[in-house]
Amino acid sequence: MSAAEPKSPRTSEAGHWGKDVRSDMHVAFEARDSGGVEISLESRVAPYYGDAILEQARQVLDELDIKHARLTIHDEGALPFVIAARIEAAVRRAGMALGKKSLPAQHTPPAPSQRDRLRRSRLYLPGSEPKYYINAALHSPDAVILDLEDSVHRDEKDVARLLVRNTLRAVDFGSCERMVRINQLPLGLEDLAEIVGESPDLILIPKVEDPQQVAEVDRMIGEMKSRHGMIRSIWIMPILESALGIENAFAVAASSENVVALTIGLEDYTADLGMAKTPQGRESAYARARVVNAARAAGIQAIDSVFSDVADMEALRHWGEASRAMGFEGMGCIHPGQVRVVHEAFAPSAAEIEKAQKIVAAFEDAQQKGLAVVSLGSKMIDPPVVQRALKLVDRAKAMGVIQ
What we know:
The chain is an alpha/beta fold. It contains 13 helices and 14 strands.
């Protein structure tokens, strides 16, 4: 079952329950004029955690300044950060507690994300499905994306926004970069108003066609950071998903100093051009090359689209290897099983590493001798080749391929 739209201004629902639902709960809220707070709970874990769930529910209502209400809860193993989000969403949908929040306990914030960190893989997690959050880091993606756009039904955007906010605050994703894909503007600005205060590392902006869209997001992030007294960086990755977006690729890539990567959404791009998307990607070769060139020209990372066939790992490997050969530094993943294959596809080969190490060693030897020219055997090494070798060695170290 899914939450329904509010039945009246004083009754509402939020969340999900049923035999196939895990780590979630459904809440039905009814505001009253008197009688205090009445809560009923149905849960398979009630004998063990029922009292704790009821206690937290009362605490959330108190934080939202709800004095008289009836709350009906169907629990499917929700954790505290989910409980708080679902109850707050139901209360807000009833037109109550506007401007108030009930935030879960905050785990120790991770170190700020570095501008040029590894972004080989980013694993999409539906913004309305908490069951995927807790174990996401076990698959070791470079980043997780809490998705508020395509994976969330339009009627559930408000509820998912609060769940993602609480997830950023309460869930430890380990070494993963914590990304959020907001909705297409202007709705995405409402997402930012809720989530920026919980320090996401990077914001993905969908369907970007004009640099002004990036500027608007950048401005909003700056305003919210000032409001919360934040100093840590929040990076931006625009997603180009149309012919116009591709034609404006460089302008978008260079639109803000906080843009650290540029990516493409091939499902929407091929639909915009009226073409079928194929596993070989010939129909999108121009667009993908344009993204790589624009990103390089702007001094940022080029990140490829997702590979939608989650059952064909060999095709994924071929796509990833071809993507790396084009100049991309990573791609999206829509299933945890894709992460390992993507990491292998984007890893330099042993031969590449050996050659790069020899070039770096020759460069360092020339530096120590005060020589302006780098040579390897009888061959002169141009500066761009040296820089490429240095970057490859650094990247291999970051991947743990070499020490």
